[in-house]
């Protein structure tokens, strides 16, 4: 009935659009006939003279194989692995346009892209913090001194920039103190100075060394002419 309706429309209008619309509707039925073997492939051109084009579609086998693989469609994978693809591959473009089209909403693709970007950002944050922790263990604890928290923040941002993250989120820089306290606990002391700027020093920094540094600083100040 469907075929007769299509042929009648074609005879009356010879309308390519009608052909394409009908083929989109009936392609699944034709495909199942091929898979189940109820209709011989060589009969296609006799049954559907108006729906087959001689030139076919370039690389149709690859197109349909790719779509079948994405959809895990065993029946179509079976077809594209046999000689039947030579016959079915000559359908008009529109006959398998719907099949080869990804059934993924555009908003889902956008969400996936955002998820990938977020995952990459979080992975870079973790890697850069690991490098910062390593610096503290190897450099700061080996050569204990007082540092500004902003120095460590700048080091973290520079590390992320070198890995391709140009814009570092404010929350990443804001949470640096919490991450340091979680990683080092009481081994790293963090406190504000009189101006509210955060300072930090390792637990192995001795009072004697602080006194020496303070004394040296005073000497430098006295030497500098007013």
Question: Topology of this structure?
Answer:
Layout: H1 2-13, H2 16-36, H3 44-47, H4 60-71, H5 74-80, H6 84-88, H7 97-100, H8 106-140, E1 147-148, H9 149-162, H10 170-174, H11 176-184, E2 188-192, E3 198-202, H12 207-223
Antiparallel strand pairs: 1-3, 2-3
Mean pLDDT: 72
Proportion of residues in β-strands: 5-15%
- Please summarize the sheet with the most strands: 3 strands, antiparallel
Shape label: rod-shaped
What is the number of strand segments?
3
What topology, given as strand order, has the largest sheet? Answer: 1-3-2
CATH architecture of the largest domain: Orthogonal Bundle
CATH topology of the largest domain: Arc Repressor Mutant, subunit A
Binned, the helix content reads 55-70%
SSE order in H/E notation? Answer: HHHHHHHHEHHHEEH
Head-to-tail CA distance between termini: 104 Å
Radius of gyration of CA atoms, rounded to a whole number: 35 Å
Number of helices: 12
Which structural class fits the helix and strand makeup?
A: mainly alpha
As for the number of domains, it is 2
Low-confidence stretches: 49-58, 82-90
The level-1 CATH class of the largest domain: Mainly Alpha
